[in-house]
TrEMBL record:
Its EC number is 4.2.1.51. Pathway: Amino-acid biosynthesis; L-phenylalanine biosynthesis; phenylpyruvate from prephenate: step 1/1. Pfam families: PDT. Residues 9-187 form the Prephenate dehydratase domain. Transmembrane segments: none annotated. Gene3D superfamilies: 3.30.70.260, Periplasmic binding protein-like II. The gene is pheA. It catalyses: prephenate + H(+) = 3-phenylpyruvate + CO2 + H2O. Keywords: Amino-acid biosynthesis, Aromatic amino acid biosynthesis, Lyase, Phenylalanine biosynthesis. Residues 206-284 form the ACT domain. It comes from Chungangia koreensis. InterPro entries: ACT-like_dom_sf, ACT_dom, Chor_mutase/pphenate_deHydtase, Preph_deHydtase, Preph_deHydtase_CS. This is Prephenate dehydratase.
Amino acid sequence: MVEKKWETRVGYLGPEASFTNIAAKNFFKDGWLLPYATIPECIEAVSLGELEYAVVPLENTLEGTVTLTIDYLFHEADLSVNAEILSPIEQHLMVHPANAEDWEEIKDVYSHPHALAQCYKYLFYRGIRQHQYASTAAAAKFVSENKELQIASIGNRLSAKKYGLVVVQENIHDFHKNHTRFLVLSKDKKILDHEGSSKTPKTTFMLTLPVDDRSGALHQVLSVFAWRRLNLTKIESRPLKTGLGNYFFVLDVMEDESHPMMNGAVEELQALGCKVKSLGTYYTHQTPSSPN
Ligand SMILES: O=C(O)C(=O)Cc1ccccc1
C-alpha cells in the first residue's frame, strides 16, 4: 500500500459503507480513512499511535449507549473526545439479489446489535431470528458472500450498493427519530472545529463515587453542578466490574472545562472523595442522512 504521509490517519468501525464510515467521511473530508473490524481495535490503534483519530459509535436514540465504547474508554484507554458527530439513521432490510424474490421467506437476519435493536418490533412480529455482527456493513458483506444461506442484513443504502445487495424493505426501524452519536477520539485534548459545528461546548466526565458508600453521595455530585447552573445533558451508570453495586458514572455537561465554574465543580467533586476524569470539551457536528 502506498503510504499517504500528508493525510490525517482516521480509523473507524468498518468495513467501508458502515454508518460510522459515513459519519467519519462527512467529518474528515480529506482524511485517510482506515477501517477496523471492532471498536476496541480502532480505539487501541489511536492509543498505539497508529492513527491520529478514531471515529466510533457512542449512543443511539432508540437503543442508548454503545456499552462497548463507553466501557473500553473507561477501563482500557486514555483518550480524549475532540468532536461528536450526530447522524440521522435509517435502517433497511437487504438481501442477496438471488434471494430478492423470496425475501419474505427469510428467517435469519444479521447486523450490529444496535441496528437489530432499532428494528426489534419489525423482526419480532415476523419471527425473524437475530444474529449479531461487528457492524452493519460487515453483516452486509457476509450476506453478499453467502447467498445459499438465504439470510438478510440490516443497514444503510450505501452498504447495499457497496456489497451488491438489494433493499427489500425500507425504514424498518421502530421509531422515526433515530439518530446516532459518534465520537472523534485522539490522544490529545483539543476541540476539532468543523465548518457547521455547533460551537456550543460540551464536556464529558467519568467519575466514581467516594468509597465509603455514604448515603446521598450521588445527590451531592448532582448538587455540585446544580448550584453552579451547569447543565447536565446526560448521566449514566455503568458497572465498575469490581462487584455488584459498584458503578462509574458518565456525565455530559454543556460547558467548556476551562470555565471557572467547571474548575470549581471538579475541585468540589474531588473534595467529596470522587475520582473525576474529563474526556475533554468538544463541539457537535450534524451530518445529513446517509447517502444513497
Ligand atoms: O457503523 C455501523 O454500521 C455500525 O454497525 C454501528 C452502528 C449501528 C447502528 C447505528 C449506527 C451505527
